[in-house]
Amino acid sequence: MKPEKMKPSLRIQNQNEKALSGKALAVLLAAVLDKGIPFRFKARGFSMSPMIQDGDVITICSFHPEALHLGDVVAIFYARTEKFVVHRLIDRKGDFFIVKGDNNPGPDEQVSQDQIVGRVKRIERNGRRIHFGLGKERYVIAWLMRNRLFLALIRKSRMIKKVFDA
Prior knowledge:
CATH topology: Umud Fragment, subunit A
Largest sheet: 8 strands, antiparallel
Structural class: alpha+beta
């Protein structure tokens, strides 16, 4: 296929697969959001599992700083390490936020508002929209994470599910 006929994509599903990450992804995301257009891409990694799984398509939108709330899932760019992540806001310390991947044992470093590039608005898995984790329950999830109870609850629910599935 000629390059001019290819649709722009972060991941091309063939032997010529290309992926953007880190600074390149954050710059592209910021440029798209600055134009008022939501940005969709395929999530990679397991830090937000089970809410966002490897391969889910997530949509990130721009945000108003005063509209950020604990429990929101946000896109963050760490300039020092050129690392781009999507994690949850679990606490606020003055002008800084504490963020954490839902599946991570501990929180990330504190982030300032200017490190937050956008907010996750939608999650799709296998073509179906995933609602849980972005609604009002996000406040409870943030509280559970702040109090180090979320992972224990997830692990216990997985064990219960295995018992009932057996």
